[in-house]
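As a warm-up, study this chain.
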Amino acid sequence: MTVASNTSSSTSRFYEDLEPGLVIDLGSVTFSRQQVLEFVRLTGDVHPLYVDPAVARGAGLSDVLVPVTLVGSMTMGRLVATGILSESVVEVKGLNWQYRRSIVVGGELGVEMQVIHRELSADASRGEIGRRFILTSSDGQVVHEGLSDAVVLTRSSEAALQMEEAKPSFASAGWLADLVRRLGESKEFADATASFDGSVALHFGARSVGVRLYRGRIIDQGRAVVANATFSVGAPASTWLRFAARPRNEFISFAMGDAFEVRGSTYDYLRMTKALMLMTDEVRTLIR
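Now compare it with the structure written out below.
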């Protein structure tokens, strides 16, 4: 694998520098037949599609296939090579890798890391960040992506705590509490839910918030409300960040395009459209 240099990202970043929505260019990668052959021999996964060009072409590929596990491993290696988190990361919490298109040897792929959420620890000495790794082809198509949470150190516990108290990070516990508070203070939201007796949950990747409503008032919230919601709307954190970056609230088009997943009562979901627009307006405000 050939790795492009990227000296502009050589300074290690800490929790305070890794705000949700931040995208960092990790350079580019190119996989060779030799690299694939060495990898599959090491792992024992010697599938003909990985080692025999004739078999690969017979399957409709232009050359041998690059194993997904190799793509994920080398992407992590690309991150390490940049030194971006070399002084701050203390733990990696798993890797969930998905591919949209097959990768064959030879083509150059761009690699980016997007921060999608973060949560400060109780003592503010460190925090957990959600990372999304994106590999794109020369025509701009996303071919692979992976999710991996990591624990990183703060540069200053006191400064990080003050920062989170002043402006909680997207999808953190403080941010979700702010969202509920803002909804509870909104007269428009109260009017839009005046005839509703039920609960609504919003899912931001692995993080969720739910509100129990009765005649325009929020009367309860918490995990039980989320689990028993009348209906819920959810999407990966990266989708919410993309949604918030649009110049106007495009909730309807996102939902109709299946960017948001809706579960529960379709009837209540449809009649609560105005309330959902107001809820997602608040989400956009807090993210932006």
